[in-house]
Amino acid sequence: MNVINLKTIDSTNNYIKEHYEEFENFTFVSANFQTNGKGRENRIWNSNENENLLFSFLIKDKFLLKNYKALSIGTASLIGGFLEEMGLNNVMIKWPNDIYVNNKKICGILLEGNVNKYIVIGVGLNVNQEVFDGIYSVTPTSIKKEINQNIDINSLKILLFEYLMKHINNRSFKSNSLKFYRSHDYLLGKKITINNINGKVDGISDNFDLIINKKYISSGEVI
Ligand code: BTN
Fold first, then answer.
1. CA 18 – CA 12 distance, rounded (Å)
2. CB-based contacts of 15: which residues, under 8 Å, 6+ apart?
3. How many angstroms separate the Cα of 27 from the Cα of each of 88, 114, 146, 150, 188?
4. Ligand 1 centroid to 213 CA: how many Å?
């Protein structure tokens, strides 16, 4: 594992994308602040300076790239499990990779790259931030807001990086991810719209597709 800690950067995802050739598999890059933090669907990811975990890590391992579909839900499931181990309750995963606690969003994940060469997994985990200015479609929360405790971000960071690397390299990563997701499925049974399809969510397939009206959806934004 290689760890690079930056003070300020445009986006830790961009930083790894610019350097993916020279960086090794499982290079983690964190920042105290991002000037151009990116969310999914071209959204902006805002975070106060020094209050949250903002990081990305690089995957170049051939086996993991081949099984890239597991990485999105798998990373969300691992962070969800990590939060439960910290004592948070009502942790849920909203397909494909948002983490909710008590119906509020605590963590967002953005995957980028080219599956033939590399994947960057970017994670924004709200840790100590208590005030979230701005307009959000889902109310944000943080670890501190949920357990009323200030967290040492640097210690948490090292623990989480080690946890992610260890579990992603585990031979049961895919099956563990499916199991965790299925027991923490935020959308299960809910009526939603995705890619112009309306219906009730039946869960996910063994290939991590969302199942709605017996149709398998591999990407899209849930409304
Ligand atoms: C989302 O829920 O829309 C995904 C948010 C991902 C945010 C993280 S913060 C670290 C990394 N760098 C970025 O620019 N984005 C991701």
1. 10
2. 6, 9, 29, 31, 56
3. 28, 17, 30, 27, 34
4. 30
Ligand 1 atom at shortest distance from the alpha carbon of 36: 14
Tell me, what's the pLDDT at 164?
98
Chunk the chain into consecutive blocks of 10 residues (it has 223) and report each block's average pLDDT, rounded to whole numbers.
97 98 98 97 95 98 93 97 97 97 98 96 98 93 97 98 98 97 98 93 97 91 85
Q: Is the pTM of this model over 0.70?
A: yes
Q: Which atom of ligand 1 is nearest to the CA of 105?
A: 2
Nearest ligand 1 atom, CA 108: 2
Decide: 30 and 3 in contact? Cβ < 8 Å: yes
Instruction: Tell me what pLDDT residue 199 has.
Output: 94
DSSP label at residue 189: T
User: The tokens 């890619």 sit on which residue?
Assistant: 195
pLDDT at 135: 87
Most informative mutation of 57, 94, 110 for ligand 1 (most atoms within 8 A of CB)? 110
CA dist., res. 21 & res. 24, Å (int): 8
